[in-house]
């Protein structure tokens, strides 16, 4: 029996790229090599993450025109990671494997045949990995390097230069769905699921049209989530810092005592001020890191839903068969 594939595409205000994206994805699904490996119940699933442009009406129109094109509409914007998650959760009910890919054609669709092949050779997860970052701005390249470097130092097993372009088998997706955290950081969690995996390399292109939906503020909070969801290293760092400062102040005490005995009485004002400001700063820093973790506990304990589906043209596309 052939394995059914669902391609999950999160879309947030992507009216400028959708038609082209759909054209390319459709032709890949109809590609001869791919057709030999996938079943006739394969689908493209666009997840409209609360767009306020014409994204949803384009998706509806495309799905009326073709039986393999389907869509999900969120009731509001829930974010990229949740759009991916919703698509995968849906796919886990009907598909043997799912590929997640961005809507803007930055990820090369031409490696999909190789990804599907890797799946049929027994891999449960196939990571698409960028072989360079030439198309990124200097700033994005450097911050990404810093981020992956930090994550690695803190012992989080992430695939460098791999974003959210990957293939997952049905059982790998079901494994992923068991991770119930609200602040989902997919690329950190997927390696934790295990199973046999492999990488496929590609060159990442420039966005086909439109602007990035990840402004700096969103990127920073994404990175912060990534760090604090996976590691308590920042808390530990604060402990080391505390120890260091205590040692330093002991040194300072000895120095003051000795100079007192020797009769070199210092005015004392500057050392006092320096220590007050320094300790104050360190305490604030420590508090903010602790606050970040407590905030995480706060949002996780509420167990709020991660997305709300307003319309579902994916499930119904199977019932009609
Ligand atoms: N996206 C989304 N919800 C959001 C922001 C982004 O579904 O709140 C989608 C977006 O439509 C695209 C993908 O996530 O398909 C990646 O976003 P983008 O290309 O803007 O990010 P960049 O490539 O600039 O990091
Ligand atoms: Mg992009």
Description:
It holds the Pfam family Glycos_transf_2. This is Group 2 glycosyl transferase. Residues 6-148 form the Glycosyltransferase 2-like domain. The protein is built from 12 helices and 8 strands. Helix 3 links the parallel strand 2 (43-48) and strand 3 (69-74). The chain has 321 residues and is of the alpha/beta class. An 8-stranded mixed beta sheet has the order 7-5-6-4-1-2-3-8, sandwiched between helices. It folds into 2 domains: 5-213 and 304-319, Spore Coat Polysaccharide Biosynthesis Protein SpsA, Chain A (Alpha-Beta Complex), CATH 3.90.550.10; 233-302. It has helices at residues 18-29, 32-37, 55-65, 80-94, 112-120, 138-153, 170-177, 186-193, 216-230, 233-261, 269-302, 313-319, and strands at 5-11, 43-48, 69-74, 97-100, 125-130, 166-169, 197-202, 309-312. It binds uridine-5'-diphosphate (UDP) and magnesium ion. The site of uridine-5'-diphosphate has 17 residues, from strand 1 and helix 4. Residues 10-12, 14, 49, 77, 79-80, 83, 102-104, 106, 207, 212-214 line the site of uridine-5'-diphosphate (UDP).
Strand order in the largest sheet: 7-5-6-4-1-2-3-8
Gross morphology is elongated
Q: Sketch the topology as an H/E string, one letter per element.
A: EHHEHEHEHEHEHHEHHHEH
The CATH architecture designation of the largest domain is Alpha-Beta Complex
At the fourth level of CATH, the homologous superfamily of the largest domain is: Spore Coat Polysaccharide Biosynthesis Protein SpsA, Chain A
Q: What is the number of helical segments per DSSP (H or I, 4+ residues)?
A: 12
Look at the helices and sheets and give the structural class: alpha/beta
Largest sheet: 8 strands, mixed
CATH topology-level fold name of the largest domain: Spore Coat Polysaccharide Biosynthesis Protein SpsA, Chain A
**What is the number of E strands?**
8
Query: Rounded to an integer, what's the Rg over CA atoms?
Result: 25 Å
User: How many discrete structural domains?
Assistant: 2
Bound ions, cofactors and other small molecules, one mention each: uridine-5'-diphosphate, magnesium ion
Task: Compute the separation of the termini in Å.
Answer: 18 Å
Low-confidence stretches: none
The percent range for strand residues is: 5-15%
Please write the CATH class name of the largest domain.
Alpha Beta
Assembly state of the chains shown: single chain
């Amino acid at each position: 029996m052939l394995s059914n594939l669902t391609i999950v595409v999160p879309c947030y205000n992507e009216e400028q790229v959708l038609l082209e994206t759909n054209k390319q994805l459709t032709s890949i699904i109809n590609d001869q090599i791919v057709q030999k490996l996938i079943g006739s119940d394969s689908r493209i699933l666009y997840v409209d993450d609360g767009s306020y442009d014409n994204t949803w009406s384009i998706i509806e129109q495309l799905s009326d025109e073709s039986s393999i094109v389907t869509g999900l509409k969120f009731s509001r914007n829930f974010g990229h990671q949740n759009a991916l998650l919703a698509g995968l959760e849906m796919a886990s009910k009907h598909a043997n494997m799912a590929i997640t890919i961005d809507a803007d054609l930055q990820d090369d669709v031409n490696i999909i045949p190789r990804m599907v092949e890797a799946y049929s050779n027994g891999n449960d997860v196939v990571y698409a990995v960028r072989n360079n970052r030439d198309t990124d701005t200097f700033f994005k390249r450097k911050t990404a390097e810093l981020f992956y470097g930090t994550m690695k130092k803190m012992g989080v097993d992430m695939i460098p230069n791999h974003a959210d372009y990957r293939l997952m088998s049905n059982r790998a997706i079901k494994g992923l769905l068991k991770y119930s955290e609200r602040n989902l950081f997919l690329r950190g969690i997927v390696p934790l699921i295990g199973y046999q995996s492999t990488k496929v390399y590609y060159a990442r292109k420039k966005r086909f049209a439109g602007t990035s939906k990840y402004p700096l503020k969103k990127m920073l909070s994404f990175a912060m989530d990534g760090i604090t969801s996976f590691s308590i290293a920042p808390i530990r760092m604060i402990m080391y810092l505390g120890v260091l400062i205590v040692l330093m102040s002991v040194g300072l005490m000895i120095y003051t005592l000795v100079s007192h005995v020797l009769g070199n009485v210092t005015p004392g004002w500057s050392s006092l001020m320096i220590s007050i400001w320094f300790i104050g700063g360190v305490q604030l820093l420590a508090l903010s890191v602790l606050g970040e973790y407590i905030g995480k506990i706060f949002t996780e304990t509420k167990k709020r839903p991660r997305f709300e589906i307003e319309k579902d043209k994916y499930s119904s596309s199977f019932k009609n068969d």
